[in-house]
Design goal:
The protein is an alpha+beta fold. About 15% of the residues lie in helices and about 35% in strands. Among the domains are: about 130 residues, Immunoglobulin-like (Sandwich), CATH 2.60.40; about 140 residues, Immunoglobulin-like. It contains 4 helices and 17 strands.
């Protein structure tokens, strides 16, 4: 009876069963604790919006350990309105049946002395009388053309220009006033407005000019600008004034709109009068020195420019005696450096001359934008029985790219480049810095 009733192998199996159950229970407890801990951690995120709104602690923006901000009493926007009893509250607005009657204070006018002229005039008349006391005749020019006559002038094709001229012999200054330009042709078929400006030349010195301001988006610009030229009294009658009107487009390209040629020998320079003249296109605006007809032809294969010299006409300032002769000198420039010089044969001086000669220059295609041609009509004078001979430049024409030429000369050069191996012929106005008396 002292030994166990269970066999040894049964006792071992029982012990193993008890240990396995204990381990399972322990593992189950661990799982329960882990699940409970995770749910505990996720519980603040599972709170509904309604619970948050009902919980006064959860809506605090600061920890409970922080001292809350002091609550200050509300300030009234109009405290004076509540300092009186209820029966005497201030009224801030009211409604009325009609606008109350009121009258403007009497107008105060500077009084005049008794017996003074215009003592009973209105304020506007009084101001006008003050302006009149400045004597505007001292500041404005007398005019031989009134503004009212502008409405009765005939229509102009290219536009009309107003100006005034006066010469001060004491200081040898020519004062030119550019007043306005009207009825310029618009851009395109829709007559869009232009940006015009005017350049004023005192020929034959066309390198020195005066330029007006640019007037934006208009076909009838008003300038009212004064320009001064220094010229001697002996030379003033031999000069010609030229107004050239230009337009600058959005690409900064200049377009010629017309010119006005004014020989000063036909103008009374002692009186300040206002004149008007119709603009003429480039083909009709002749230079005071005359014109020369030339042709240009460029052959890209041989890289040569062929210049044809045809005619010269309207030579006005030449001294036509039997000893004076003309020839054309053509120079090829690269920048400011003369590369090659050629000339035609000389001919006797006359108003119109036929030359019919050709000259050629070698120019590489890559150098076409950096070179220019200067054709100068030279006058050879013989004096002292033919012992002394000297050449005088009568007039010149500069043809080349945009860097060196403008107007017809620039167009002629561009047409030569656009149509290789085709002679392009044009008339060019002669210009010069030399005065011919």
């Amino acid at each position: 009876m002292g030994s166990s009733w269970l066999p040894e192998d049964a006792e071992g199996k029982t012990l193993a069963l008890v240990l396995g159950c204990g381990a399972a229970v322990l593992l189950l407890l661990v799982v329960v604790v882990v699940v409970w801990t995770r749910r505990r951690r996720r519980k603040p995120f599972d709170i509904s919006l309604e619970d948050i709104n009902n919980d006064p602690i959860s809506v605090k923006s600061a920890p409970t350990s922080r001292t809350p901000s002091p609550k200050l009493p509300k300030r009234l926007s109009c405290p004076d309105a509540f300092q009186f009893p209820k029966q005497s509250l201030l009224v801030r607005s009211m409604t009325v049946d009609r606008v109350p009657d009121f009258t403007l204070p009497p107008e105060r006018v500077q009084p005049r002395a008794n017996g003074e002229k215009g003592a009973n005039t209105t304020p506007l008349q009084y101001q006008q009388s003050l302006i009149g006391s400045l004597q505007p005749d001292l500041y404005s020019h007398s005019s031989s053309f009134s503004e009212e006559e502008d409405n009765y002038l005939p229509m102009s094709t290219y536009g009309r220009l107003w100006y005034s001229i006066v010469y001060d012999a004491a200081v040898e200054q020519l004062n030119v006033t550019l007043i306005k330009v009207k009825d310029l042709p618009g851009r395109g078929s829709h007559r869009f407005p232009r940006d015009p400006y005017v350049k004023i030349f005192l020929l034959p010195d066309d390198r020195t000019c005066r330029t007006s301001k640019v007037r934006k988006r208009t076909l009838s610009p008003i300038f009212n600008e004064n320009f001064v030229f220094q010229v001697s009294e002996d030379d003033i009658k031999n000069r010609v004034l030229r107004f050239s009107v230009y337009d600058v487009d959005k690409r900064k390209v200049r377009h010629s709109l017309g010119h006005v040629i004014v020989p000063l020998r036909d103008v009374d320079l002692g009186h300040v009068d206002t004149y008007w003249s119709d603009l003429e296109p480039m083909t009709q605006a002749l230079s005071s020195l005359g014109e020369i007809q030339m042709s240009l032809c460029y052959n890209p294969q041989t890289e040569k420019i062929k210049i044809g010299v045809m005619k010269a006409r309207n030579l006005k300032h030449a001294d036509f005696d039997q000893d004076t002769r003309f020839y054309l000198r053509v120079q090829l420039f690269y920048g400011r450096k003369i590369h090659r010089t050629k000339r035609t044969g000389s001919r006797g001086a006359s108003v119109e001359m036929d030359m019919n000669e050709s000259l050629s220059f070698s120019v590489a295609g890559k150098q076409m934008d950096s070179c220019r041609l200067e054709a100068a009509l030279m006058m050879t004078a013989q004096r002292n029985g033919g012992m002394l001979t000297h050449d005088v430049e009568y007039g010149r024409v500069v043809m080349g790219p945009f860097m060196y030429a403008r107007g017809e000369e620039l167009i002629h050069w561009q047409e030569m480049q656009a149509q290789p191996r085709v002679p392009i012929t044009r008339w060019h106005a002669l210009t010069s810095n030399v005065s011919h008396d």
